[in-house]
Amino acid sequence: MNVGKxxxxxxxxxxxxxxxxxxxxxxxxxxxxxxxxxxRKELAARLGVSLSTIGMYEQGNRTPDNxxxxxxxxxxxxxxxxxxxxxxMQRTLPHSNDIIETFDLMASxxxxxxGLMFNGEPIDKNEVERVVEAMRxxxxxxxxxDLDKK
Length: 150
Fold this sequence. Notes:
The protein is mainly alpha-helical. It has helices at 19-35, 40-47, 51-59, 66-76, 80-83, 99-113, 125-149, and strands spanning 5-9, 12-16, 117-118, 121-122. Strands 1-2 form a two-stranded antiparallel sheet. A two-stranded antiparallel ribbon has the order 3-4.
């Protein structure tokens, strides 16, 4: 599902949404707000907008600008892909310096959702597994090189 059209006029890119995409975004905002047991008023205060703006977001009558989208992701601790309806998984990468933990989460996301393409064509599951394994080997080699330097 393609969500949002990106228009770039340097120095800033702006996402443009059709009516259906606005509805998906609004539904996600409402779902996440309720998940976190937050009122519209509380979300409006945290986001720095009016109560009616939150209502318009949730009804799909208005879309947040890029800065507000980023802030919504921070507030709800979700990825932009999830917020915009591109993914069904809410998890964001951990705030961790542990590269192995971060890689394992990223690899499982790729494997679960088949998220790799080559020249616009999806890569079959066996090839995706080979790519992930190659990435893992590269990461392990790099970590070993760093250890050898110490």
